[in-house]
Design a protein that fits this description.
The chain is of the alpha+beta class and about 270 residues long. It contains four helices and 19 strands. It folds into two domains: about 120 residues, Diaminopimelate Epimerase, Chain A, domain 1; about 130 residues, Diaminopimelate Epimerase, Chain A, domain 1 (Roll), CATH 3.10.310.10. It has a 17-stranded mixed sheet that branches. Strands 9-10 form a two-stranded antiparallel sheet.
């Protein structure tokens, strides 16, 4: 039995299985990821993170959602990897190069500048991403934004009142989003504070979502609702998003190791 060490981490309850493949490569199938993600018969996680060697940065990060699908970006997952690696890192992802800085109990990651072009998400056809002319039941006219992965953000009076588990899958799988989409439900508290719930593409409702927090702040800033620095309160706790002078958004907050162990990956093949 070929066992590999793993790290189980979380950022505000958004949990990850982290595998370090810099010394020994790891090949994963969608079925393996789903098996490992099972919270009863596997290890359980929202996302799996693979740390690999990089020719353009300190490390390369790859991300899989619990449904077995590989995705380009994961904000909290990037922070978890940064906290694990320590110090300052340049991290290659499919969503772009990220710079990170580990601090006690967590990490900050430069998530780059948000993109609002309809083809950046992508959408099925051109439309105004500052207010999509679309509605799902009582949710209407979201902001669409890419922060390495696609998001739509709805601004509502009471985020807790939205039946996210019902409406989230409908929006995620709407044909207008050819690569599916993450769904954010944001409530404006003040110019420096948002309440947010996120339905994550391929993972469902999670306790926290780093790219969701960045997307919500980017959307709110585009509409002129918030200032440069915003505290985002998610079900698992608070993240901080800051817009720099160059337009990049910095995501910071806690990320810790919950436990470590050994896993036989072939058992889940």
């Amino acid at each position: 039995m070929a066992e590999r060490p793993f790290f189980k981490m979380h950022g505000l309850g958004n949990d990850f299985l982290v595998l370090d493949a810099r010394a020994a490569p790891v090949s994963l199938s969608a079925g393996q990821v789903r098996g490992l993600a099972n919270r009863h018969t596997g290890i359980g996680f929202d996302q799996l993170i693979l740390i690999e060697p990089s020719t353009v940065a300190d490390v390369r990060l790859r991300f899989w959602n619990s449904d077995g699908g590989e995705v380009a970006a994961c904000g909290n997952g990037s922070r978890a990897a940064a906290a694990l690696l320590g110090g300052q890192q340049r991290m290659e992802t499919a969503g772009g190069l990220l710079a990170s800085d580990a601090v006690a109990g967590g990490a900050a990651v430069d998530m780059g500048a948000p993109r609002f072009g309809w083809a950046d998400l992508p959408l099925a056809y051109p439309m105004d991403t500052s207010s999509l002319p679309l509605a799902w039941e009582d949710l209407a006219h979201p902001v669409a934004v890419s922060v390495g992965n696609p998001h739509v953000v709805f601004f509502v009076a009471d985020a807790a009142a939205v039946a996210l588990e019902t409406i989230g899958p409908q929006i995620e799988h709407d044909p207008v989003f050819p690569e599916r989409v993450n769904v954010g439900i944001a409530q404006l508290v003040s110019r420096g504070h948002l309440i947010l719930r996120v339905w994550e593409r391929g993972a469902g409702a999670t306790l926290a979502c780093g790219t969701g927090a960045v997307a919500a702040v980017a959307a709110a800033q585009r509409r002129g609702l918030v200032d440069a620095t915003v505290r985002v309160t998610l079900p698992g706790g608070d993240l901080l998003v800051e817009r720099r002078d160059d337009g990049h958004l910095l995501l910071s907050g806690p990320a810790v190791v919950a436990f470590t162990g050994l896993v036989d990956l072939e058992r889940y093949a």
